[in-house]
Specification:
By secondary structure, the chain is mainly alpha-helical. 71% of the residues lie in helices and 0% in strands. Helix 4 packs across helix 10 (214-232) and helix 5 packs parallel to helix 13. The two termini are 20 Å apart. 44% of the residues are buried.
Length: 397
């Protein structure tokens, strides 16, 4: 009878689907809300891509590509903070697969069908199949990197980050203080240098395969993991949220000034490098508020719900934009006014599509896959576990 509470606890863990589950640690709801900020920045970036450059101000929404860098750092923080104690590498990989793959697979198939039968450009099917395997960010071929659902190149990067995560956290966890800082600084510095050099080598655009290469983007994730480890070890940041946002805005202004001085576009590698630290400080500021139980705008219920929708929103928004701009309300001329008039419709449809994907694909798929894995692990447990085996049953999920 003593093992029954352990079985119940394992089953309750198996049913959990939120990345904010802290397993004995305080939840960080503001970081969930910030996921929406990152996704919304990318949405504005893709909206701006439809318009004509009529003034320097039009480059401001195009600066939204830093939302991807923001999310890579955030991903490292959240994964590290919410890591399950005693979880095997295989269990971690399966839970990550269950978390992202159902929605990714559905949207990849939808994208292939749309670009084959509904709207140009007609992307090659073979490249879309590579996207299904989450390998399309690796080949230095633009048509492959943007295959099927164009935004999913970042998921290909995330898949690489997931593969590295268990060993990365063990390696950094064994080091403390200055040694860890040196290792993290070396990785971040190497990736940032490659990003800046590649950005200027590509004439500033940096929307080449090099920009989407997982090795180049690895530093952002490592920075997030380092922050997550520090939080787990008891660090409670005392950074003002307003000051962190002001610093991020100042970094963005510096990057925009570079764009003005060199005649546009803003070099993406340089932009990501300059803003990465301040945006990480924003995450730290909100995490510190959550740790001491202080309410923030990003921890409100509506913000957390939008954050939970953010992955689905990210997956659907570019396809919805293409449908709106090409099919539903096609533009005769690409002007700022034409884009702005269609943006509210694209945003509303993107949110509705994200809600459908989140509630009818993402969450059910995650629950189904994790539940089956939990049942298989429970089936391997002896009927009469001894004292050494029972803790493994409690922490099985």
């Amino acid at each position: 009878m003593s093992s029954l509470p352990g079985v119940a606890q394992a089953r309750s863990h198996a049913a959990a689907t939120s990345d904010t589950v802290s397993h004995g640690r305080r939840d960080l709801p503001s970081l969930t809300g910030l996921r929406w900020v990152a996704a919304f920045l990318v949405f504005w970036f893709h909206c701006a891509g439809w318009g004509a450059v009529v003034s320097p101000w039009w480059h401001l929404p195009q600066f939204g590509f830093i939302g991807v860098s923001f999310f890579f750092v955030l991903s490292g923080v959240v994964l590290t903070w919410s890591a399950r104690p005693g979880q095997s590498d295989g269990q971690f990989y399966w839970r990550r697969f269950a978390r992202i793959y159902p929605a990714h697979a559905v949207m990849t198939i939808v994208a292939i069908a749309l670009y084959l039968f509904v709207m140009p450009p007609y992307k090659p099917v073979w490249a879309g199949l590579l996207a299904l395997l989450l390998l399309h960010a690796w080949p230095p071929i633009p048509i492959v990197n943007s295959a099927a659902n164009g935004v999913s190149w970042s998921l290909s990067c995330e898949a690489f980050f997931y593969a590295c995560f268990p060993r990365l956290t063990r390696m950094l966890g064994k080091r403390s203080g200055r040694r860890r800082h040196v290792v993290v600084a070396a990785i971040v510095g190497a990736c940032a240098t490659a990003a800046v050099v590649g950005s200027f080598a590509a004439g500033g655009r940096f929307d080449t395969p090099f920009y989407e290469n997982p090795l180049v983007r690895f530093g952002e994730f490592v920075l997030g993991v380092a922050i997550g480890l520090a939080l787990r070890e008891g660090w409670v940041p005392r950074v003002r949220v307003g000051a962190a946002w002001l610093l991020a805005a100042a970094a963005a202004a510096v990057t925009l000034a570079v764009g003005v001085s060199r005649g546009w576009p803003v070099p993406r590698g340089l932009a990501d490098t300059i803003t990465m630290g301040p945006l990480a400080l924003v995450l730290v500021a909100y995490a510190g508020r959550d740790l001491i139980g202080r309410d923030t705008l990003m921890s409100r219920r509506w913000a957390v719900y939008l954050g939970q929708l953010s992955f689905a929103f990210y997956l659907v928004h570019q396809l919805v934009l293409d449908l709106v701009m090409k099919q539903l309300v096609p533009m005769d001329h690409r002007t700022a006014l034409a884009v702005l008039a269609r943006t509210p419709l694209a945003l509303a449809l993107s949110i509705l599509a994200a809600m459908a994907l989140h509630h009818f694909v993402e969450l059910p798929g995650q629950r189904l896959l994790t539940r089956r894995a939990s049942r298989r692990r429970q089936a391997d447990v002896p009927a009469y576990p001894d004292e050494r085996q029972e803790p493994r049953l409690v922490g099985a999920a």
